[in-house]
Model the fold of this input.
Amino acid sequence: MKNKPSIFSYISASVRFVLFWLWAVLNLPVMLVNPGGRLGVWQFGMFMRVGGIICGLHYRIKGRVASARPLLMVGNHISVVEFSVIPGALMANFFGKAEIAKMPLVGIFARKAGVQFIDRNPAKAIEMTRKIKEFTERATWPMVIFPEGLSSNGSKVYPFKSALFTMMEPQLIGDKNAAQFTIQPFAMFFRDKRGNKLSDICLAQHYAYFDPKKTPVIMDGKEIQVKERSAFGQLFHIMALGGMIVDIHLLPPPPLAGIHDRKQLAEMLYKIVNSEYMKYK
Done:
């Protein structure tokens, strides 16, 4: 692919960007009275689905969402794009970083739709896991979480943080009074607008949204410099590329027999997601 979009691509992206914000403003009155619950999740999902089409964000799904509830879906994290695609693709809600709540309009819509924002500060780990547990127990729709704790440059999946699965330990040790959660792993892959696979360098330079200091891009033993963009800057750049396709592979919920603590669970889920990702990326 070309290293830089043309001037016409930027003009097209500017039109898409304006149309997206017009769509958001038109939906503002509706979203402000979002009732929450299942209807609220559907409403937010439809808003993001149409918004994704405007921005050129499309998706393809392999597999099915598990029917069991409460359901916690666990996958890899590459960009801010997931927060646009997941609600519309899976009609699911998610646990996101507190920073997302501060994004103009989108943050307001997400809060009204019941998106749960969590502070990953280690000092607030107990509060975070309690919030995840209590909300997932009540939800009659899928809840999504990204256990890597950061977005990656797309070259691999980073090990999952085990603290996010503390709520599962009573169930793992056989506590009859524990809520019985089902966990479904999934792997996401970024493709260009035609559905073609992307090289690691192309992913990092154009499609991924990450901190190069935390996840440096290494090629032939040397670190490659990657331009950092803001969240909306990244979305605009993808629009200038003509959009993209997100492939979502929904994997079967794994049996939990033999898993006795959160660290074992995190490692098992990481291996499942990483294996699928490295196989198809």
Observations:
- The first strand starts at residue 57 and ends at 62.
- The radius of gyration is 19 Å.
- The longest helix spans residues 7-32.
